[in-house]
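Q: I'm writing up a methods section and want to include an example of the input and output format. Could you take the sequence below and give the corresponding predicted structure tokens, formatted cleanly so I can copy it straight into the document?
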Amino acid sequence: MHVDMNAFFASVEQRRHPEYRGKPVVVGADPKGGGGRGVVSTASYEARKFGIKSGMPISRAWQLCPKCIFVPVNFRLYLEVSARIMEILRKYADKFEQIGIDEAFLEVTEKARSMRVAQNIARIIKNEIREKEGLTCSVGIAPNKSVAKIASDFKKPDGLTVVAPDDVEKFLFPMPANSLWGVGRKTAKALEDMGIATIGDIVKAGPARLKARFGKAGLWFYETARGIDESEVVEEWEPKSVGREVTFERDTDDSNVVFIALEELAHDVHKEAVESKYRFRTVDIKVRYEDFQTHTHSKTLPFHTDSFDIFLGTAKALLEPFLYSEKKIRLIGVRVSNLSRGEKQKTLCGK
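A: Here is the clean output for your methods example:
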């Protein structure tokens, strides 16, 4: 079973502000009358009717719907709501795997010995989330994780789709190729260039052709397109990284402005990591120039640490080469990954 909250951030804002219900809501950066920087985080279904999508420049969203209600991201609130929803889901699962702030897999084989019982459990889950949190979710039920994830997206919002084992191919094959888990925008374009439009076309292409174009990922596409996925629901979910980024009000080549922004971002990232009791080993930097060319650079330390000094020093060293470009900087981001929990280890500076 895959459970996915519907337009989660926007739905939480509509719940918090009843006057927003039924209206187009965009969660993200301040549009500043069409001149804002940054991107759309989430758009309500009412806003999506205007063509607004997650990841779209906020200025473009304002052009499409200047009458939309634009609200800033309130990540702390969304985390609190998410935690309560995940506790609801967890009690109905034999095994539980959270894969994001607003979605999770539930293994329900022991609790539901048939698809009919699983469907009843899904209805109970949907009702409990609606009654306790005032939010809706979409649920997909299938023999494995990849098909269940596609099924949860089939009838949104507030959907419930059941795919029986004998109906997997009939369900999958007519679907667009980008419905397949792991097929993003670039991969979908590459498949289109190969004459592949549907999941059924992926199967027809065959494993050899797909592997030649996409490597091992091509074999994954072939297997999941046939409805084969033996990956298990993993009990414990941990975030892979903690990061922040900022888009400057104006493109800048002032190194002082960039370093000040980096330090502010680093403080936020470090605080979240430490409060979550994470140590990190890899530091990543992201830089986007005025022409939208984006570069990343990372360094993996020989140890795990929670030292802010080591984190900031590493981040500054990674960022510095990007400041010698003749192009102005539009965005910077910093992230820690390769996370671990456990006993505090010594670091090079003894902290």
